[in-house]
Description:
It is built from 19 helices and 16 strands. The protein is an alpha/beta fold. Helix 14 links the parallel strand 7 and strand 8 (379-382). It has helices at 8-21, 27-49, 70-79, 89-97, 126-130, 134-149, 154-157, 171-175, 187-192, 197-206, 221-235, 290-295, 323-337, 357-370, 385-388, 395-409, 490-506, 512-521, 537-551, and strands at 55-63, 162-167, 212-215, 240-247, 281-289, 302-311, 344-348, 379-382, 411-412, 432-434, 439-440, 449-454, 460-468, 481-487, 528-534, 564-568. Strands 3-2-4-5-1-6-13-12-7-8-10 form an eleven-stranded mixed sheet, with helices on both faces. Strands 14-15-16 form a three-stranded antiparallel sheet.
Amino acid sequence: MPDEKIDIKKELLHFLLLKVKEKELAPEIVKQFLKEINKAADTPKKQEEQKSDDIAIIGISCRFPDADCPEEFWDNLVSGKVSIGTFPEQRREDYERVGQKTKGTLKGGYLESVDKFDPEYFNIPPAVALNMDPYHRIMLEIFVEAIEEAGYCRSQIKGSNMGVFVGNDHSHRLMNSYLSYLSNTDFTAIMGSWTGVLASRIAYLFNLTGPALVVDSGCSSSLLALDHAVKALKEGDCETALVGGINLLFYPTGINEETQSPDSVVRAFDQEANGTVWSEGAASILLKPLDKAIKDKDHIHGVIKGIATNNDGKTNGLTAPSAKAQYDVIIKAWERAKILPETISYIETHGTGTRLGDPIEVKGLTDAFRKYTNKQQFCGIGSVKTNIGHTVGVSGLASIIKVLLCMENKMLPASKNFKVPNPYINFINSPVYVVDHLMQWESNGHSRRAGVSGFSLAGTNCHVVLEEAPEPTKVSTNRPEVYVLSGRTIDLLKEDAYKQLNSIIRQPHVSIGDRCFTAATGREHYKYRAAIICDDLKGLKAGLKTLISLLQGDKVEEASQGIQLQVYLKC
Length: 571
């Protein structure tokens, strides 16, 4: 007979009971032995089953004043550009064309256009697209851009268990509705402006089966949407999650003028702070559990370590902020992140530039840090609103994307318009200081960590703890790489070549292998195609320049040695 497998645990139990019976061991000691044995036996299983609660951000997209993509947004931040100005002339003419009378308009942060849309890409009839609110059109495009930036195409995410979570402040839309510009408000027009469809429209088009919802908590809406997305991922309600936010001002006359800075300048934490500036924007991020993102070899922009929300409760007034509530939400986020607060070296504040709101925010931060440390001025703070204005419901995502770009570039841009501190803020004895010039973001011996705060007149507060992405595994090959592009038209193929060339210039840290892999597997393949064979990024840049020249009809110069260019203009 073959040897029977011995049950060591059972034999040991029998041995111990025998010793008790023979009075060589006390029953209490045996009980302790058994307790430790069971604990040791369960430990490997628990370690094996334990997974990280961290959430990876694997895709980002945005449109902000003077920036149609994250790369342009970062360039503006680094250069210290302030993108607050007059309403675009073309949009003013469009407004007058539909029979509306124009008066003086507030300065703000405006998108150059909100009417461009490619309905064919989404298989939407042109007449239906015309009746769609620009909120819906732009949100669709922003979602797709985030998915593609993550290295995926439509065919890869169709039918997947992806959730969609949108933050949208309705206050501006109540005073400035797209429906008011339409002559025929039929069923398609009503559906085209229905807020609840902001999330479910892309779920319908791409057959996404995760949760799809829209939340409104005022200025903290997009961070509240992020909180819902993180919880849904951790509960298994979805495998990936799109989080988005959008704010548009079709014609900014008479909108919250009493809260607007008289000179249209956001001076966060400065003694001259006199109000905020309303702005437009749209943004989206794509989330996936960190363990899964690492396994799938996704490019990770940053990691969500913890997030928390709460409400002010009863304060001095319905819209009055609470330093205690802000303190509580920050502490809760830190506890969930399981990090030492001293390791946080930057916080992107809500920072609206109001004389009383800014000191309350700094007090909440100071009190939170003082629970853990007495160190002075070790954590920088800033506000992206000083660059682009207050994008309301999307402002939280604007802050998130700014911090992610800071982490990837290891730099902190200046918070603009800060000269003399607000007299109600004692920065000298504070753990925080205002980042008032472009500076290197040192790691202080830990992974770079940051906080992002979002508050609102509705009293709903949110705080997020972010950490820079783990170092990716580098794989080197000595073989040539093949980079493929395609477009539905020659013009779109040329436009894509321009975008890819610009991406290489702006993001030289992305390897040639990763770029070629994404181009081949994470993009749709259309009628007009091109392939570039090259050894490195220098060769790819040369090939893209040659392709652009060819598509423009110019004389094609001889390509650099080692580059082969094949263009398929027809099937």
